[in-house]
Amino acid sequence: MDNMTHSLVGLALGELVERALPAPRDAAHGSIRRRALLVTGLLASNFPDLDLVLTPLLPAPLGYLIHHRGHTHTLLYALPQVALLLALAWLLWPGARRLLHSDRSARRAVLGTALLGMVLHLCFDALNVYGVHPFHPFDSRWLYGDLVFIVEPVFWTALGTALALCARNPVLRRLALAFFAGMPLLFTLLGLLQWGSLAGLALVALLVAAAGLRGGPRAGLMAAMAACIGFVGIQAMAGQFARGEIRAALDQAAPGSRVLDIPLSSFPANPLCWSFATISVEAGGADYGVRVGVLSLAPRITPVANCPARFGGEPGAAAPNLAWKFSETGSLAGLRRLRQANCHLDAWLRFARAPSLLGGSATDLRFGAPGQPNFSTLPYAQRAGQPCPAPVAQWGYPRADLLGWNQATP
Predict the structure, then answer these.
(1) Mapped to the 3 state alphabet, what secondary structure does the chain carry?
(2) Distance (Å, rounded) from C-alpha 323 to C-alpha 14?
(3) What is the structure's pLDDT at 309?
(4) At CA 332, angle to CA 338 and CA 293, rounded to 5?
(5) CA–CA separation, 310 vs 296, rounded Å?
(6) Tell me, what's the pLDDT at 369?
(7) What is the per-residue pLDDT for 313?
(8) What's residue 349's pLDDT?
(9) Model confidence, pTM
(10) What are 269-325's pLDDT values in tens digits?
(11) Which of 1, 117, 305, 363 has the fewest Cβ atoms surrounding its Cβ within 10 A?
């Protein structure tokens, strides 16, 4: 997820923990405890993304693909991150040090917030099509939620509204409310959201605000959490329907093919529109196919031609429910030989889930249109004679099935 979402999750966690603790013994103690919990939640929910400093270890794009959402995005390596975070707070923040030294309940609360903040970062990252491998080194396979867009305004609206109502400064409260109300409107005017999505976000904001104003900030935070969980649940059900329709369409487009995977990416704040890819073994078993399309689950309400083009919509689509945008086939034997011969492509295949290998460049079609380079594009043919990249983390190959292995690694 984006760091705005991670930050809001961390701040909401800190506020909820603070409000679950016994009343502070005095105003000064309460102020430092609240700030310590908010800062801990904020930092813990963003700490795993510090792996971006490791991207220079490999030439682009491999540095980002291999080392982002890497070791810091695992449950095992969350523990030293928590220790580092608490050590920094102890060394650099005298007020927090005094609090942790003198107040046992605050000490436990800060530790719990740090641990849960790290875990929530992994959980939210697991919701989208990018994926995580949280159980490395015991299981290095990538896991994908395929449920929500990587920048999801539902989370911004729900959590942002609840946190704005927690602000003690009235000016800050009004500014925050204006920001989280204005951003969806701006996104809609820019063509990033449909007007129906804007109406849904407005309803979420009103419900959260009503809960916060009637029941207090804690009730608002709980309502925001319920809205986020409910939205994920809606996306999960919609995703299941989407996969069923995509499989049926693929049966018609490529009779006799065997589906291996259907990466899904929903549109922001929109359970009806889905971008997708399909990876399959073609009829006969000698070739593989990678196809890209866009689907509407309710074409009478939102045909695919009306799904926002910036996120994969197809304005000129003839069919109202599903449009195929691209298809590529290749030899399974050729792919396996190429991986063995080109160590740069081999490293790239530890990340790629929907590989396109046209014209000597490899692109993961989850993140961009064919023929248009994106952050995943690797000119593997140009690098064929260059020294092999190192260090390459031993993540499982998402397309181990195409490479002829039953396991995530050979």
Answers:
(1) CCHHHHHHHHHHHHHHHHHHCCCCCCHHHHHHHHHHHHHHHHHHCCHHHHHHHHHHHCCCCHHHHHHCCCHHHCHHHHHHHHHHHHHHHHHHCHHHHHHHHHCHHHHHHHHHHHHHHHHHHHHHHCCCCCCECCCCCCCCCCECCCCCCCCCHHHHHHHHHHHHHHCCCHHHHHHHHHHHHHHHHHHHHCCCCCHHHHHHHHHHHHHHHHHHHHHCHHHHHHHHHHHHHHHHHHHHHHHHHHHHHHHHHHHHHCCCCEEEECCEEEECCEEEEEEEEEEEECCCCCEEEEEEEEEECCCCCCCHHHCCHHHCCCCCCCCCCEEEEEEEEEEHHHHHHHHHHCHHHHHHCCCCCCEECHHHCEEECCCCCCCCCCCCCECCCCCCCCCCCCCCCCCCCCCCCCCCCCCCCC
(2) 44
(3) 86
(4) 105
(5) 15
(6) 77
(7) 82
(8) 98
(9) 0.94
(10) 999 999 999 999 999 999 999 999 999 999 999 999 999 988 888 887 888 999 999
(11) 305
Position of tokens 């804007």? 198
Among all chains, which residue has been given the structure tokens 């030293």? Answer: 80
The first and second tokens of residue 206, run together, are 């009103």
